[in-house]
Amino acid sequence: MATVRIVGTGSYLPERVLTNHDLEKMVDTTDEWIRTRTGIRERHIAADDEATSDMAAVAAKRALEDAGVSVKDIDTLITATITPDMVFPSTACLVQERIGATNAFCFDVGAACSGFLYGLEMAKGMILNGTSKNVLLIGAEKLSAFTDWEDRSTCVLFGDGAGAAVIQASSNGRGIRHTVMGSDGGLGDLLKIPAGGSKTPASARTVDDRLHYMKMTGNEVFKHAVRCMSDAGQKVLVECGLTVDDVRWIIPHQANMRIIRAIGSRLGDVQEKLYVNLDRVGNMSAASVPVALDEAVVAGKVKPGDTLLFVVFGAGFTWGAMVVEW
User: Fold this and answer.
1) What is the pLDDT of residue 146?
2) Do the two domains 4-169 and 176-325 of this chain adopt the same fold?
3) Less Cβ around it within 10 Å: N or C end of the chain?
4) CATH T-level assignment (fold) for domain 4-169
5) Is 228 considered catalytic here?
6) Looking at 93, 113, 155, 228, which residue is catalytic?
7) What's the pLDDT at 37?
8) Residue pair 77/105 in contact by the 8 Å Cβ criterion
9) C-alpha pair distances (Å), 38 with each of 41, 157, 185, 317
């Protein structure tokens, strides 16, 4: 069956590291409280003058180098992000200018933490229908710019970073095998940034009311995240004719360690197959899966022929699962 494959990966994490002990000095929390509830020890925070597009550009260049593909051969550039440099132009266009991808058409994907997987499925479709040949897909977030550092329930969760992949038609039959995706807009109020869009434009009041920061109903998000990712993971395996025993690595959205462990249990008590870097980077939304993937590849954990399972969940709500034969 015709498919596409990832031929190169790259990632970038900002230099500054914010530890739980640092957060103890900022809000009413403790290292023990954060670790037991989230599994996070530290996260990377972008510099004040470092935008989402800056991080995306570094990850993109590293992916191109890994793939051995010239930037001039990139005909499609997709950036998955919910923290764009600005409302418009797209962050993808800003990255295009930074890296010199002058032959690419560019656009952003706004599916929150599911954005990279959604972008992979879009890249697959465009390559198979002949629209594209070389797609550069980036997941990049500067969540620190939208984090309320006075809200201890959310400020401990998020980090900044970027991951990228180069996607081409597969020459050996390996690559993306199948994808399952879903959304439920009826649950959108559980995780959102209330102001800054056309419904509630920026004003002195919205700034004073701290409406430009992320708001989350944590317990409800937890419940839906576990159910949706587990169900999607089980469904995509069944539709591929596989079981979890066939999977070498499960790379989940790095949201919360309790969520990740619950998914591992529901998929068949496969904790040892979960690739986790959450403790070191926190929740990076659309950057989570590509950064984890690049780390696993660089570390030699992912080998040709391995079957990978990506499972994601994000605001919207959006979710999905994808089986990839590496």
Assistant:
1) 98
2) yes
3) N
4) Peroxisomal Thiolase; Chain A, domain 1 (3.40.47)
5) no
6) 113
7) 94
8) yes
9) 9, 7, 26, 20
Torsion angles phi and psi, residue 300, rounded to 5: 80, 15
Beta bridge partners of 43: 18
Does the active-site annotation cover 20?
no
Provide the whole-model pTM: 0.97
Picking from 128, 131, 108, the residue whose alpha carbon sits closest to that of residue 118 is 108
**Residue 140 carries which DSSP code?**
E
Rg of the chain over Cα atoms, rounded to whole angstroms, equals 19
Q: Which one of 93, 106, 253, 256 is the catalytic residue?
A: 253
Every domain of the chain and the residues it spans: 4-169, 176-325
Task: Give, in degrees to the nearest 5, the angle at Cα 177 between 161 and 313.
Answer: 40
Q: Which residues of the chain register pLDDT less than 50? A: none
Q: Is 283 an annotated catalytic residue?
A: yes
3-state secondary structure of 40: coil
The confidence score (pLDDT) of residue 1 equals 72
Give me 255's structure tokens. Answer: 């949201």
Residue 214's identity, in one-letter code, is M
CATH topology of domain 176-325: Peroxisomal Thiolase; Chain A, domain 1 (3.40.47)
φ/ψ (deg, to 5) at 201: -60, 160
| pLDDT per residue as tens digits for the range 42-81 | 999 999 999 999 999 999 999 999 999 999 999 999 999 9
